[in-house]
Design goal:
The chain has helices at residues 2-19, 34-74, 79-116. It is mainly α and 120 residues long. The protein has one domain (2-116).
């Protein structure tokens, strides 16, 4: 019975995480020249990568929470150890998401700088 309850709790956390995952922002349609189109595409790519990083982070956090909930509900594992593992997992997910977001911003900045530079 405890396993059934733990599974239901884990499923609840998982569905809550996927229900709140933000959709990627729609890029505005540009009818300007080719450089403007490249910048719009770079912005869309950046938004997509940021949304993807957020989704991965949310998924990892939910997974860590579910793992902790199962350990608490089952009472077979050391609760303190499970909480420490969850904390490490959350920190790792946050660090990975931050790196992915920074990379996406840097890529977008490169494209904008390249388009801003005069062509020779």
């Amino acid at each position: 019975m405890k396993k059934v309850i733990a599974t239901l709790i884990a499923a609840l956390f998982a569905t809550a995480a996927f229900a709140t995952t933000p959709a990627p922002a729609a890029a505005p349609v540009a009818s300007a020249s080719a450089p403007a189109v490249a910048v719009v595409k770079a912005d869309a790519k950046q938004a997509k990568e940021v949304a993807k990083a957020d989704a991965k982070e949310t998924k990892a956090v939910v997974k860590a929470d579910a793992k902790e909930a199962v350990a608490v509900a089952g009472a077979t594992a050391d609760v303190a150890g499970a909480k420490a593992d969850a904390k490490v997992s959350k920190a790792k997910a946050h660090r990975k998401a931050s790196k992915a977001k920074a990379k996406a911003h840097a890529d977008a900045a490169k494209v904008e700088a390249k388009e801003a530079a005069p062509a020779q």
